[in-house]
Fold this protein.
Amino acid sequence: MRILAISGSLRATSSNTALLLAAARLAPADMEVVLYDGLAALPHFNPDLDTEDPPPTVLALRREIGRCDGLLISSPEYARGVAGAMKNALDWLVSGLEFPEKPVALLNASPRATHADAQLRLTLTTMSARLVEAASIALPLLGRSLDADGIVADGRARSTAPRGARLVCGGDQKR
């Protein structure tokens, strides 16, 4: 099983990216979690460019979405909303055939970030994603300055995740 992990943060020391990297390390042996690293390279969404021949970075994103069995998304909240880079990426996926019915789990690095989480859920369901609630969790990482190794060592990813949340706590294999 191949899972594409997308962080909505462009920060070098993002807790959202660290959370996704920790999830990859905790994934079961039969699951490959691949971090998408092209978010900053995507052009601003423009319907005039969303043609049969969209920009190469958009084609690459759509290709990655098509190759994966599911998505793992972690995005910060800015000004009580979804991070612009995350929303931009989703806008580029609206007209593609790769995204509808794709299973998606949401990881929230700050339980206080409820507005972005709600907006992200609304956008994803509008785009016909299948939200996997059993694998969607919020961890209190805000202000803790933990990298992926620190999150794994802290153990909250395993203890906070609901039973059956394979994307996050299915195993202890390191990747």
